[in-house]
């Protein structure tokens, strides 16, 4: 019997809803079980405690990074960056998909302040420096890159 891999999808939410749906469908088409904030229940746990619990149960982590840094925790670091750091720290395979040209994204899909833009750029630099990443421009590009990468990861 073939194992079904559980894959955590990490990204900012409002600006990347279409991308998250596309990646979820791509994972389902490849017999994977997607895990993301959309499925999180009400819980007595803190958000980060629950995220770590879910990551501990996953086989792979996918990061989709575009024009937003994400919701900050009390320490100013976004949940998205904390998810990325935790996934890497526990040795999960990390597959990162980074928008190639955030300068051409609509303004509502980009950070509004210099401070948040700088945090995003620092995070992008970290993601691109730590490991191989795939770049995308469209949702279709993203789906193709995820399908190829998840199949290689499984093999």
What does this structure look like?
The chain is α/β, with parallel strands linked by helices. It has helices at 17-29, 47-56, 79-89, 114-130, 139-154, and strands at residues 6-10, 33-35, 60-65, 94-99, 133-136. Strands 2-1-3-4-5 form a 5-stranded parallel beta sheet, sandwiched between helices. The two termini are 15 Å apart.
Defining traits:
alpha/beta; 155 residues; five-stranded parallel beta sheet; 5 strands; 5 helices
Radius of gyration: 15 Å
Oligomeric state: single chain
Outline, from the CA principal axes? globular
Residue stretches low in confidence (pLDDT < 50, at least 5 long) are none
The number of E-state strands comes to 5
List the helices and strands and how they pair.
Layout: E1 6-10, H1 17-29, E2 33-35, H2 47-56, E3 60-65, H3 79-89, E4 94-99, H4 114-130, E5 133-136, H5 139-154
Parallel strand pairs: 1-2, 1-3, 3-4, 4-5
Could you give a quick summary of the protein structure above?
The chain is an alpha/beta fold and 155 residues long.
